[in-house]
């Protein structure tokens, strides 16, 4: 059906009495699945006792309604027949035969019922017409005096449709006196005898004023027809004082003293609760999806160098405990991978790992993001929200860039660490949670705390088990293994066959200092694979030259002779690098002495001679 035909059929149906209360939008929905059929004079459209499965609207022509030789009447363009087949499949009560060439629109029951369910505006319009017909039964009875049985069937079916509706249907007159209710309305109002009572008494003040203003404005504006969704949710207060939130529609028919209004209300309490649950589950699903994505495409933690093997050993040691972990390392070193490894190796690995970047969320929103908020807690809080600590209950929360957390929020985090509880924004109710906390930062939090930029007590609470992730430039041949694995991943993803790294390639990769660490390596390799020709990568055109020119021309510098003062300075800088790498641990397997291949006593002596003192 093209656009022009759709408009014509919609306009035509709007003038059919059965659809007179249905909006144009809903009529367009109806027209999307209608069939047009043509019958010639004498053709039987259906016979008495046939199973009902559709109703018909006459586009052009005329039909006869009859039983054998007895004729009940004739109907023509714009009139309907067979409506009751939309409700059930009871046998047809009469036969219908074309009196001349007749075109009809056929509306089948399954599609009609589906539309009634999905389009509340359509359902409300149809119900309004049926209710109107219900009130006009006395007049209909006079017109169909010879068809009493058919009238009783129509009355029963329409009443069944109203009484069987799950939505509450309330009709009231121009003085707001209730004149019709269905069982759903009686249950909503908690009253089986609500007739003749003022309908406004069953609403809270704001909702009563809303309904009253709609009716009043409609009268003053002399609107021909009222058929609107209620602009906001209304609160019904039953006779037993049970309060419920409802959405609905209001419509009018009749004129003057014979004006009546129909309210169709739907209780949305369960839906709101379901939406809240869905929101919680959706958030958890998003976090879990992110976790799965990381676990399946992050190239794992590739480690053969002793520095990173030491980190993995620490992961194994702390994973089975609930100790708070502080991961320190430069940007891009893989701190989040270490956090995920701890979670996966822990007893909480069947629960969510919830991640939040404290530096990526505006300061005015991070409290709500972490701890949640109640509806109306601040401007824009139109609904309650579960915070990420609640989403992480029984699991792990990873606080990335913890050094960026606002100072005024840090006491709340400290309370969770100490007592396992917090108060959502705008709530006086304390929430208890069981969460394992892993934090990460590229900053020196101890120095930060001395400068008043981070709470010192929070630092010590977070630093129960510190782990330092070494930068890529200090991981030896790991860089080659990681680079090759990333090349393989992007090669498969982009369906491009790549040659393995050669010795020259490895030398170039090792000479560069990689200030962006693994993340920078990943970005360069992705670009390299995209522009690679015949499986070869020109690393010298991709790696910043300023960082490798010096080492590449090392032969020219090998002839330089250093003075005693320069040698002392070089040795001092080398020892300082080793001490910083080990966080000033001198002896032991992972101490600075082991890295420098010196005895701890020898290193201590050199530190004194070179005036190397650990900073406070």
From TrEMBL:
InterPro entries: AAA+_ATPase (IPR003593), AAA_lid_NorR (IPR058031), cNMP-bd_CS (IPR018488), cNMP-bd_dom (IPR000595), cNMP-bd_dom_sf (IPR018490), P-loop_NTPase (IPR027417), RmlC-like_jellyroll (IPR014710), Sigma_54_int (IPR002078). It comes from the Bacteria. Residues 301-530 form the Sigma-54 factor interaction domain. Residues 18-133 form the Cyclic nucleotide-binding domain. Keywords: ATP-binding, DNA-binding, Nucleotide-binding, Transcription, Transcription regulation. The keyword DNA-binding applies. GO terms for biological process: regulation of DNA-templated transcription. The keyword Transcription regulation applies. One of its GO terms (molecular function) is ATP binding. It holds the Pfam family cNMP_binding. This is Transcriptional regulator containing GAF, AAA-type ATPase, and DNA-binding Fis domains. It comes from Pseudozobellia thermophila.
